Structures are given as structure tokens and as C-alpha cells.
Amino acid sequence: MSFCVAIDGPAAAGKGTIARAVAAHFGFAHLDSGLLYRAVGRRALQGENPLEAARSLRPEELDDPVLRTPEVAEAASRVAAMPEVRKALTDFQRAFARRAGGAVLDGRDIGTVICPEAEVKLFVTASDEVRARRRHAELLERGIEAEFEDVLADLRARDARDRERAVAPLAKADDALLLDTTELSIEAAVNEAIRAVERRYGQGRV
Ligand code: C5P
Predict the structure, then answer these.
(1) How far apart are CA 70 and CA 172, in angstroms?
(2) Residue 110 Cα: closest atom of ligand 1
(3) What is the pTM assigned to this prediction?
(4) Is any ligand 1 atom within 6 A of the Cβ of residue 109?
(5) pLDDT tens readout for residues 75-132
(6) Which of 45, 82, 157, 159 minimizes the number of CB atoms within 10 Å of its CB?
(7) How many domains does the chain have?
(8) Domain span including residue 112
(9) Is residue 202 assigned to a domain?
């Protein structure tokens, strides 16, 4: 039987960390759906047609560390605004969401478009400054030089594009639990997420 946890939110809000922790806690599979768009964005940067890239993605491409760079993030949000690209990536995500044994997917449209019937929906957010601070620290840790102001501006531009696009814009599903991590430690946020899943999981849905 399947059980889907949908975790959406803007960039660097903590949804990836929460998704991985929830998946590990319950033994569910995890899909970072942003990697799909990043992989397509990367191929677009290399000159490939984004739709053809989306139709021919290979799983091993998702492991490449280059997908974590700001340039690829930017390219990802551009290809993510193309309806045919989103459509080409939909079946894979829906199948993942319904795999046996439970799944956690994080992204922008999981609770609204990919898996609107998800058993648990979370919308993870935080202030722009806090998210930019986290992303800045993460980049420096990985040896990528960046100015805080540039990280903040990039993040705001990417969020605006994600919120304002016509198809599957970043939005909180009406029935999603809001988790604001601006003043919440990552441990506290993870605990809240686990409690939300336990409330449904305890009802024997898997
Ligand atoms: O989550 P991440 O920052 O890796 O996502 C990169 C970009 O991919 C986002 O800015 C967004 O444009 C796009 N994306 C999306 N829908 C998803 C996941 C990511 O449009 N479900």
C-alpha cells in the first residue's frame, strides 16, 4: 500500500532536510523533485532543448554535485516555467508518490498538482533573510564563493518566478500544515513534521 508525504515551500526553507529526516524515520523513499528540474536546467545550459532533456533524463544524472550550483538553480526555475517540461516529469513523480512502502516528495507543487491526495501535506517556509543566510552558509561550506546580498537577490528572483508562473506555481495547498522555520530549529521542525505524519500513519494507512 502507498502513503505520500508532500512537502512544498520556497528555496532554502528547510524542506529537503525535513523530507530526508521524515523518510529516514518512517523508512519511506525520498524524492527531491527539484533535482529533476535542475537536471533539465543543466542540460539546457549545455544547449539542449529542455523538453527533450526532460523526456530523456536518466536517474544517475540526479547525483551530480553540479546540480547544486546557483547557475543550475536559476536555469531550473526557467525550464520549470515551461508547461511541457512539467508535464514530461509528472508521471515519474506520480508513480514515485504511489510506490509501495511510502514516499516523501519535496518540491513546489507536490501537494497541489503531483499528489493532491497526499496523506500528509506540509508547507515549509521562512523569512527571505533567514533562507538566504542558510543558502549562503551552505554555498561557502561547499567552497562556492558568494556575497550574501547576491544570494538574497537570487533567491527572491527565483521565488518570484516560481510563485508567478502560470502552471503549477509555488503555493500552499489549502489542507497543508504550515511550518515556519524562521525561528524554529531544524530539530524542532523535523519533530513537528514527524508528529504530523504519525497522526495519519497511526491510522493504518500504509
Ligand atoms: O528545490 P530546488 O531549489 O532544487 O528547485 C529548483 C527549481 O526547480 C525551483 O526554483 C523551481 O523552479 C523548480 N521546481 C519546481 N517544482 C518542483 C521542484 C522544483 O518547479 N516540484
Answers:
(1) 24
(2) 21
(3) 0.95
(4) yes
(5) 999 999 999 999 999 999 999 999 999 999 999 999 999 999 999 999 999 999 999 9
(6) 157
(7) 1
(8) 4-197
(9) no
